[in-house]
């Protein structure tokens, strides 16, 4: 009984995942944007997925049906259609809406911690481990000749005890 | 010597942790919808738009030069604009020059009747029917208020309604600083 339910659940999840994965969740009907060249259409598609809607902050302008997102899509369309390169459109948007509008923010002083922070943590952690291991090794005490003698005697005594 | 190092090893993670706490607390209390404008320090973009009342009259970016002023982006479909309108009337009565940019409104008539009913705090009324000027300004919602200096440079952008608190805060302070010669 339990096994059947699990199977059903897994099957349903699988079906839903596949159905959703098959269709990009675009809010608007992209058919209205027609291009004479497939290359331009590809650039347009990339752009509207990479540009972020400033109004509805966690959606790209392809996903959002806010009026502002439509305006930005329209402007992107016009620019790409009239021959603007991908970078030109991105520069145009960033000049007006700031780095925020692009989902791939440039590396600046402010964002560098996001890029280098994890690596820095790894390196620092590795160094700490290394230093600790080394200091432990060097703290192993060198035995004096008297101590050696005493150790040898103790071992000898131990051996005799074991034998008897 | 080695004792000092021991302290450093103990304190360093604590310091790092405290730094992280401060950083995260700041993030917790900051408003992610308040984006700073990409145009701060830049001149007002070029535009040419008709007057709200008189379609035959057009204005360019040059009307925003000459003295420090506020450029207020508004529309009748925007509830927060209604909320701030009375305060704008008060500011205008105090002599603060405000230029209105009507942003993608439902119709010209609707905007005009709004001003007739609620009062017109604007020295000039620009009619941006398709939102082209607003796009140049990086407007992402209404209301937004830009502080523009005498040379036509954008100095500050406030997102949301203008009220007493905002006017005592950064927007008003920056405006007053522009009025004092030798500052700003």
From TrEMBL, chain A:
Keywords linked to the UniProt accession: Cytochrome c-type biogenesis, Heme, Iron, Membrane, Metal-binding, Signal, Transmembrane, Transmembrane helix
TM ranges: 113-133
Single Gene Ontology MF annotation: metal ion binding
Protein name per the record: Cytochrome c-type biogenesis protein
Gene Ontology annotations of biological process type: cytochrome complex assembly
Signal peptide limits: 1-27
Family membership: Belongs to the CcmH/CycL/Ccl2/NrfF family.
High-level lineage: Bacteria, Pseudomonadati, Pseudomonadota, Gammaproteobacteria, Alteromonadales
Alphabetized Gene3D superfamilies for the sequence: Cytochrome C biogenesis protein (1.10.8.640)
Alphabetical list of PANTHER family matching this protein: CYTOCHROME C-TYPE BIOGENESIS PROTEIN CCMH
GO cellular component: plasma membrane
Protein function: Possible subunit of a heme lyase.
Domain CcmH/CycL/Ccl2/NrfF N-terminal: 18-154
From TrEMBL, chain B:
PROSITE patterns linked to this entry: THIOREDOXIN_1, THIOREDOXIN_2
UniProt keyword list: Cytochrome c-type biogenesis, Disulfide bond, Redox-active center
Family (UniProt): Belongs to the thioredoxin family. DsbE subfamily.
GO MF annotations, alphabetized: disulfide oxidoreductase activity
UniProt superkingdom: Bacteria
Listed name of the protein: DsbE family thiol:disulfide interchange protein
Stretches assigned to coiled coil: none
Main location class: membrane
């Amino acid at each position: 009984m339990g096994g059947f339910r699990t199977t059903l659940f897994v099957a349903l999840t699988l079906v839903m995942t596949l159905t959703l994965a098959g269709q990009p969740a675009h809010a608007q009907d992209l058919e209205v944007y027609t291009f004479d060249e497939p290359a331009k259409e590809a650039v347009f598609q990339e752009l509207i997925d990479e540009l972020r809607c400033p109004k509805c902050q966690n959606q790209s302008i392809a996903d959002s049906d806010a009026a502002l997102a439509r305006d930005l899509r329209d402007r992107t369309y016009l620019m790409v259609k009239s021959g603007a390169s991908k970078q030109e459109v991105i520069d145009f948007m960033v000049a007006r809406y700031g780095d925020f509008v692009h989902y791939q923010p440039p590396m600046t002083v402010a964002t560098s911690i996001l890029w280098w922070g994890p690596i820095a943590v790894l390196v620092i952690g590795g160094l700490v481990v290394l230093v600790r291991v080394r200091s432990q090794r060097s703290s192993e005490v060198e035995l004096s000749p008297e101590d050696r003698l005493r150790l040898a005697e103790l071992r000898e005594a131990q051996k005799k005890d074991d034998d008897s | 010597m080695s004792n000092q190092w021991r302290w450093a090893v103990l304190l360093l993670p604590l310091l790092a942790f405290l730094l992280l706490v401060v950083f995260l607390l700041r993030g917790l209390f900051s408003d992610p919808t308040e984006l700073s404008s990409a145009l701060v320090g830049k001149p007002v973009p070029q535009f040419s738009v008709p007057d709200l009342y008189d379609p035959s009259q057009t204005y360019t970016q040059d009307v925003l030069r000459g003295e420090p002023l506020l450029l207020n982006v508004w529309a009748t479909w925007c509830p927060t604009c209604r909320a701030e309108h009375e305060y704008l009337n008060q500011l205008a009565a105090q002599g603060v020059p405000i230029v209105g940019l009507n942003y993608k409104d439902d119709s010209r008539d609707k905007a005009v009747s709004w001003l007739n009913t609620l009062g017109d705090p604007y020295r000039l009324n620009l009619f941006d029917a398709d939102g082209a000027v607003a796009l140049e300004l990086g407007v992402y919602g209404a209301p937004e208020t830009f502080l523009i200096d005498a040379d036509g440079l954008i100095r500050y952008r406030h997102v949301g309604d203008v009220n007493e608190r905002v006017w005592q805060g950064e927007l008003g302070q920056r405006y007053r600083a522009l009025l004092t010669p030798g500052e700003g």
